[in-house]
Sequence to fold (538 residues):
Amino acid sequence: MITRFFPRSAKYAAWSWLSLRELRAAPAELYGTALFFATILLVFSSLWRKAAEVGLPLGLGSAELVWYLAATEWLLMSTPNVHLDMAEEIRRGDVAYALLRPVSYLSAHCARAVGQLVLRLTLLAPVAFGLAALFAQALPARPAALLQLAGYGLGACCMATLFRVALGLTAFWLHDISPLHWIWQKLSFVLGGLMLPLPFLPEALQRFAAFTPFPNMLYVPASVLTGAAPSVTRVLAQQLLWSGVALVTSVWLFSRARRAMELNGG
Amino acid sequence: MANLSLTHRPRFPTLAFLRALIRTNLRAAFALRAAFWLQVVLMALNNWVFFSFWWLLFRKVPTLGGWQLGDVAVLFGVSACGFGLGVFFAGGVRKLGRSIESGELDALLTQPKPTLLYTLGSHSIVPGLGDIASGLILIVLSGKASLSSVPFIALAIVSSALVYIASGTLFFSAQFWFRQTDTVATKMWEALITFSLYPEPLFGGGLRLLLFTLIPAGFVSYIPAALVREPSATALLSVAVGPLLYWSLAAYVFRRGLMRYSSGNRFGSFGS
Fold:
């Protein structure tokens, strides 16, 4: 339907569809992710149960924390590693062929990532929430919050994907982006509240985190399950703002990389 | 040049070969000096940022099953050092599944050297040095180590590294029997790393049995860390027996796997 009114979007829709089919054709990666998911939830459900023996802070129960972790891990594992694919393409020089295609390099990668994201979110949702129910031995306090989580989560993953595209583009200068990837990943663990909700952090770190995009990627959407999420308008405004920052950064990085490639002859 | 002489025969050829592999890997790692240091420093930073989880948690929760921050620091440190040491000197383990699948072992099978040793030692993962550095600093800062415990720390780290690599060899050797198991083997290895970073008292029942058999986090970190925290004859014996058991099994499985290995039709040189 969209492609009828916006014919130029047809090729990008095809990219999304293609990546979706690629992922479906090689399900081993998803099985592996599900296995890892189970490991993480098993470890943390044990951890929170032990911690609850001496009293958990912030008035949270161990079941609530397990559901919180399932939500943050679901969002993290659903976001495709588009930056690693881009970095590999740039490192191998395949980017020279990709640039010759009659599609925007950035839009094509974003479209591919969206295809993967939709499939991963859909397939990992029952894994995440099924395992959370199993290990927490309880449902969330407000089961309807799962729908709100899905909405906030989709926005958060799109935003995180755009930042990953920007990270991938740094491969034009860094060649190997794995160190940058680790730092970004671990910052999102701590400042995004992957394992611990942000109120666990010291005051100063919480204030610092508020100036970064990380809380909007994980903590904000997942906190609907602990009853601490901000209003819809605030969440949407922040996600849009940070998505804009990521998009502008990506376009700027790509234009600089392209200019450098043209000057140096690729 | 003297070493290349036809009349020169090293007394222990396998050890000489191992030394040559290590020397070559070190030279290759130092060739790109800036990238080398960047990877090492960022990996150490990465580990400390990850460890900050424990610092944040223990600010709010005083003990976890009797464990305090210092105990977890030793566990994390031993595991990080063991993993770093293992992948720096035997980083080829990470590529083992793909090498089997793509027929890359062909080039090694024609060499007059132990195939497993050659495969594992043919690649070095430089950030492993960052793991070692960050792990050692955590052990020192834990308050659980003293000068007298240095031999135990060294033994614990070497034992952990040996079990890490033996387990990796076992997981990735599944490719000899089943196709496309690289992803699952990788996740198994990651599960081993994950379990090894969390205190032992968290796990009980059947899971505990699993952690001392199929996913040997017990031999990778719990027992070696126990040797550092409270040295005992039992811990010392376990630290020696663990690697022996897992290496015997890994070598046997790899040898059996090689019998099933079917050559690829890939034309190229090893490592390309």
In short: The mean pLDDT of chain A is 86. Residues 8-264 of chain A form one domain. The CA atoms of residues 80 and 113 of chain A lie 6 Å apart. Chain A has one domain: 8-264.
